[in-house]
Design a protein that fits this description.
The protein is α/β, with parallel strands linked by helices and 425 residues long. The chain folds into two domains: 3-48 and 367-423, Urease, subunit C, domain 1; 51-356, Alpha-Beta Barrel (TIM Barrel). The chain has twelve helices and 19 strands. The chain has helices spanning 70-79, 98-111, 134-139, 157-167, 193-198, 205-222, 234-245, 256-260, 282-294, 309-312, 329-337, 341-356; strands at 3-11, 16-22, 25-30, 38-42, 47-50, 52-57, 82-87, 115-118, 146-147, 173-176, 189-190, 202-203, 225-228, 250-254, 299-300, 373-383, 402-412, 415-419, 422-423. Helix 4 crosses helix 6 (205-222). The longest helix is centred in the middle third of the chain and has 18 residues, at 205-222. The chain is globular, with a radius of gyration of 21 Å. The structure holds (4S)-2,6-dioxohexahydropyrimidine-4-carboxylic acid.
């Protein structure tokens, strides 16, 4: 195994130091380190972060390998500074059995670019009628701990209660896609002034807020862990603030796009801006940013949602919702939060690793911990060219935008997956 010595690198924003990676771990940090056998890199101006962890990634395999595979999504993740991603269950077939989650887990190991942790479906076929085999998925080689019907809401309160109760036995968590389906029938975008003007059916904020309110009460009642996917409204933040103050075991994520973009993008009728939940108003964006800084929202998760050209480059009403996120998330976080490295490390690595229970991720970089880390050049700016992305899909809302920050290198257990900004394999 090659050793790597990175000279004069800032650890999570601290004063420059040297960092020695050997045998899969951070062997040493400190001034003037030498290691004759190591490959030496100049880290001047670079910031080392614990490898990023994405709690919400769609990899599309099995079923839609034309849009993304475990391998292509893993490569996109590594290039984005990630060392672990949690793969959502809305594949085809759905990841609702031990067999499918083990398949995804094995494909992730074979690709070897990030740790791929499968998420299991809550209900069979995401149909919202019967609980999936949660215990068998938890006991499988994939050791599933997060369950989600993401893309669909677990709308039936009795089923949601049963799921929350069931996963308590192995400290699992239910990740809810909060959308009261009766309130969003036919919805095309955020319900508000812009949807009225464009004549598009609206997705009201209350459809999200009502489910979060219901589910924090259910989670409190049964004493289970609940996670809320892609929080998008100011009202949801208030419900979460209230629940957290009561001591409910609830965590929440926000996506990069909900931190940056607003519903007036729909005026272009470009389906690249169609996403579920939809882009909201500037007031919502401001509330989400404040909640992220404060900790009412625990993490940034990408909701990386690759879609094939024919599913995205068509009329707005027919286009699938979703946007790419893995290769741009750190840049959006830098843009939104500025160089608050400790906050970025907490919201994009430590907290998601804790929620998912991923050992060896979300720690360091410090002597003795697994060398899962990424090196960022905060001074670099790059213009996003969709054709240059590693994802098999092209549906980035940031095309031709110039964003701050560049991932220079990523290490997974001491082996580089990205060097000089390029994937190693
Ligand atoms: O925009 C979205 N796309 N939201 C979801 O909840 C699902 C995702 C997908 O799978 O494409």
């Amino acid at each position: 195994m090659t050793a790597y010595l990175i000279k004069n690198v800032s650890l999570v924003g601290g004063a420059p130091t040297d960092l020695l990676i050997r045998d899969g771990v951070v062997a040493e940090t400190g001034a003037d380190l030498t290691a004759p056998d190591a490959t030496v890199t100049d880290g001047t101006g670079l910031v080392a972060l614990p490898g990023l962890v994405d709690l919400h990634t769609h990899l599309r395999e099995p079923g839609r390998e034309d849009a993304e595979t475990v391998e292509s999504g893993s490569r996109a993740a590594a290039l984005g500074g990630y060392t672990a991603v949690c793969a959502m269950a809305n594949t085809s077939p759905v990841a609702d059995t031990a067999g499918v989650v083990e398949q995804v887990w094995r494909l992730g190991r074979e690709a070897g670019l990030v740790d791929v942790q499968p998420i299991g479906a809550v209900t069979v076929g995401l149909a919202g009628e019967r609980l999936a085999e949660l215990g068998a998925m938890a006991d499988s080689a994939a050791r599933v701990r997060i369950f989600s019907d993401d893309g669909h809401c677990v709308a039936d309160p009795k089923l949601m209660r049963r799921a929350l109760e069931y996963v308590k036995a192995f400290d699992g968590v239910i990740a809810q896609h909060a959308e009261e389906p009766r309130l969003t029938e036919g919805a095309q975008m955020h319900e508000g002034e812009v949807s009225t003007r464009l004549g598009l059916t609206g997705w009201p904020a209350v459809a999200e807020e009502a489910i979060i309110a219901r589910d924090v009460l259910l989670a409190e009642h049964v004493g289970s862990r609940l996670h809320i996917c892609h929080v998008s409204t100011a009202g949801s933040v208030e419900v979460l603030r209230h629940a957290k103050a009561r001591g409910v075991k609830v965590t929440a994520e926000v996506t990069p796009h909900h931190l940056l973009l607003t519903d007036d993008r729909a005026e272009t009728y470009d389906p690249v801006y169609k996403v579920n939940p939809p882009l909201r108003t500037a007031t919502d964006v401001a509330a989400l940013r404040a909640a992220l800084a404060e900790g009412v929202i625990d993490i940034i998760a990408t909701d990386h949602a690759p879609h094939a050209v024919e599913d995205k480059e068509c009329e707005w009403a027919y286009a699938r919702p979703g946007m790419l996120g893995l290769e741009t998330a750190l840049s959006i976080a830098l843009d939104v939060l500025g160089p608050q490295w400790d906050l970025i490390a907490e919201r994009m690595s430590r907290a998601p690793a804790r929620i998912a229970g991923l050992e060896g991720h979300g720690v360091g970089p410090a002597p003795g911990v697994p060398a899962n880390l990424t090196l960022v050049d905060p001074a670099a700016r790059r213009t996003i060219e969709p054709a240059e992305l590693a994802s098999r899909s092209r549906n980035t809302p940031y095309a031709r935008m110039t964003l701050p920050g560049r991932i220079v290198a990523t290490f997974l257990r001491g082996e580089p997956t990205v060097l000089d900004g390029k994937a190693v394999k």
